[in-house]
Design a protein that fits this description.
By secondary structure, this protein is mostly helical. The chain folds into three domains: about 1-45, no CATH class; about 65-95, no CATH class; about 105-140, no CATH class. It has helices at about 25, 30-40, 120-135. It has three helices and no strands.
Length: about 140
């Protein structure tokens, strides 16, 4: 876009007509109403409605943000019927893991690789692993 040009001399203030190289939408008028009319502003044919091609009415009620704790993870997905929306920083609590419900469990303590050379030593190592898994909640007590 060219720079505005001011082809007058002296100290008097320029008039609108003195300014050259004005963008078309400004050049169409000295005031806002004339400029809007020149570019068709305010002549939209966008319809109010509820589809992807219509506009949302200005008085549409926007659902409130939820103020309740989110539900724990369910074993089966549920669509839900809530009429509020989740806040961006919400956190779902974890279920306790059971034989039926999937839940959060802690990492089990490290178990060294077995170097057992007989069955009795292997049983000791295996039982140590089972104890650590139970303590972490991976296996039922």
């Amino acid at each position: 876009m060219p720079q505005n040009e001011f082809p007058w001399t002296g100290s008097e203030a320029p008039t609108w007509d003195d300014i050259l190289g004005k963008p078309a939408f400004i050049a169409a008028g000295e005031d806002a109403a004339t400029a809007r009319a020149a570019v068709g502003a305010g002549t939209s044919n966008l319809a109010l409605g509820t589809t992807s091609t219509t506009a949302l009415a200005g008085d549409t009620a926007i659902p409130a943000a939820s103020s309740t704790t989110p539900a724990a993870t369910a074993a089966v997905g549920v669509i839900g019927v809530g009429t509020t929306f989740a806040r961006a920083d919400h956190v779902h609590p974890l279920n306790a893991a059971t034989t039926v419900v999937i839940g959060g469990v802690k990492q089990a303590a490290a178990q060294a690789d077995s170097v057992a050379v007989d069955v009795a030593a292997m049983v000791v190592d295996f039982n140590a692993l089972l104890a650590k898994l139970r303590t972490a909640g991976v296996l039922a007590p």
